[in-house]
Design a protein that fits this description.
By secondary structure, this protein is an alpha/beta fold. The protein has helices at 26-37, 55-70, 89-99, 109-112, 115-133, 157-176, 193-197, 203-222, 234-239, 246-251, 284-293, 323-328, 347-362, 368-372, and strands at 2-7, 13-14, 18-23, 42-43, 74-81, 104-108, 139-142, 147-152, 180-183, 260-264, 274-278, 298-302, 316-320, 335-336.
Amino acid sequence: MNFYGYRRPDGRVGVRNHVLILPASVCASDTTRIISQQVTGSVTFNNQNGCSQVPPDQELTMDVMAGFAANPNIYGTVVVSLGCENCQMDLVVDAIKVRTNKPLKSVIIQEAGGTLKAIEQAVRYAKEMVQEASLLRREEFPISELIVGTECGGSDPTSGLAANPVVGELSDRMVDLGGTSILSETTEFIGAEHILAKRGKNEEVRQRILDIVHRYEKALQLVGEEVREGNPSPGNKAGGITTLEEKPLGCIHKGGHRVINAVYDYAKQVEEKGLVIMDTPGNDPSSVAAMVAGGAQVIVFTTGRGTPTGNPISPVIKITGNKLTYAAMEDNIDFDASPAIYGEKTLGELGDELLQMVVDTANGKQTKAESLGYTEIAIARVCNYV
């Protein structure tokens, strides 16, 4: 099975052809918003971090920024910084260059002479990149070039009964075709981590799965908090999920049945083929951001209650197993998995249909989140700002 995409200088293949206007910190985020509004073909996001962060948090932010720029859906990047933040321009540029050799420009607001001069300079850079990107044409590639990130949010019992198992069928097909599937949301492994660990390809992977779960729980306990105080959410409970342990038993279905080949820290570049895990929070925008930073060109996102979440860089396909949610939020949901519950279609049939939707999306078809312009992101943090 093949799709049509854009070959990048670093060898990877994109399914979109954006120019990224990258804010190095919160102090540059409004400026990048103004820049992007003036450049058709560009994307940006609201970076709430980049300054006043302890080193572990700064590393998370740097990994997301470098990963976004390196994501193959990006043609090139214009980095904009204020000039005095912790994530200094040279650090950001160097981090990006470690991951990719794609076109890269930088603008420092304080050195450019203020906001208006910085905007003018960045707009010129971005417009030149968009013109260059417009010359590219899609080429045919095997599906083995794709990394698909899997996510669930606003879950209800139909997520574990239908939507997540259908995504698991997709995951198995991606792996069997030589591609990559990412299983995320460490907090939603709690109570089922032993089941996942048995699927690790070796003892190192098996232990890493257990370690990331225990580390997450201990990190919250160190500040006197308990993960179960915030998870399941009120929406999960209203939908019929009663305990945190119930959620993982549905969540892990997104990983299908294949061997787990590797475990990656938050937002690190995914290199391994097959099924892998990324250590992310259960918070949807921050988990999706990490997988996109890791190289995922497409995100497949299940929801029982319904959610509009998107991403500025990678298309997000929304799936529900709840036919009432699909009827109520058809403007937001791309795929109805409820026929699996009512015996109208098998999981295998729906898995085939979802794989075709992923291919169609990779070929350029917009998801509903894309067409609505949803681009929210968040970046994980270890502790408070300093």
